[in-house]
Design brief:
The protein is an alpha/beta fold. The protein is built from 13 helices and eight strands. The radius of gyration is 19 Å and the shape is globular. Bound molecules: adenosine-5'-triphosphate (ATP) and magnesium ion.
Amino acid sequence: MPAASSSPPARIVAVGGGKGGVGKSFLVANLAVVLARTGYRVVAVDADLEGANLHTCLGAPAPRASLADFVAQREEDIAKLVVETPIPNLQLIAGTHANLGDAQPSHLRRVRLMRSLRRLQADFVLLDLGAGSHSSVLDYFLVGDEGLVVLAPEPTSVENAYTFLRAAFYRRMRLAMVGHGVRKLVTAAMDQRNERGIRTPLDLLREIEALDPIEGSLFVETMREFRPRVVVNSARTAEDIKLGFAVCSVCRKYFGVEADYLGYVNQDEAARLSVAARKPVVDYRPKSDASVYLQRIAHKLAAAREESLEPAGRPRARSGAGS
Ligand SMILES: Nc1ncnc2c1ncn2[C@@H]1O[C@H](COP(=O)(O)OP(=O)(O)OP(=O)(O)O)[C@@H](O)[C@H]1O
Ligand SMILES: [Mg+2]
């Protein structure tokens, strides 16, 4: 059940994935529409200022106000950048009209932005991230309550998803560590060929524990909290669908990180046609396979929110992509 007006902070869901064109914006637009139609108040945010097109995926005209105004420090109040969309309950902060010569916002400004987003009058804030693993993308990904990693079933996309997860993991760890020496160790570990011979997060943990056991415990705790959600988009075969499990299993073995396979969306001509028609596929072809799988993912996001709002102490059920 969506929250009433005296509601808890907005739940931030960040959608990234490393590779361009895998369907991040398509996913954000459609998940936002399903959640809004379910009755949640949703704000979709286009954080991809260099390739802003979320408004098009939602069938909204390019708004004048945009996140670019916050980045360029023309507007400090994020709430003033929110515009209505044709879909009830769904609002948008676009990424249009960016000055491509502008520098990326600083880390502190990104943190400020995320704090403001959490205070928006919304149940969900969905963030559409740009491609790549730059720190400006990772910061948005890391402050989300949920971080979705989208990949397509092709080697280049899988490779980029691992690079993205690896970069996100180490950035998260470095932000969590307090001591200068420990942070230096994490920075060293980010270079895959570092001379200290740190090759895996477990190597890093051993070094940190030797230097400072308290930071070692903090490292383990932060590692446990890092739970990326994997989505396979444009799946065509049973093997493609299984890829999500394989990625989660590599995360567990290599990082010691529990990733969840949130779900998959099959490759569907209706998806391509809906983008061409500038409409979300869940509206354009609500009965298409893609729409059905998108609805399934949206319902899992809704369930995770409801679960997070339950009083502490109740057992928490986890669900996998196959459920
Ligand atoms: N499940 C699908 N089936 C068929 N086509 C799809 C599917 N998902 C996405 N597409 C197609 O892929 C195109 C690229 O998707 P989208 O723009 O969402 O990718 P992106 O990851 O946001 O890219 P970028 O990194 O450039 O922002 C869409 O315009 C659509 O035509
Ligand atoms: Mg995009």
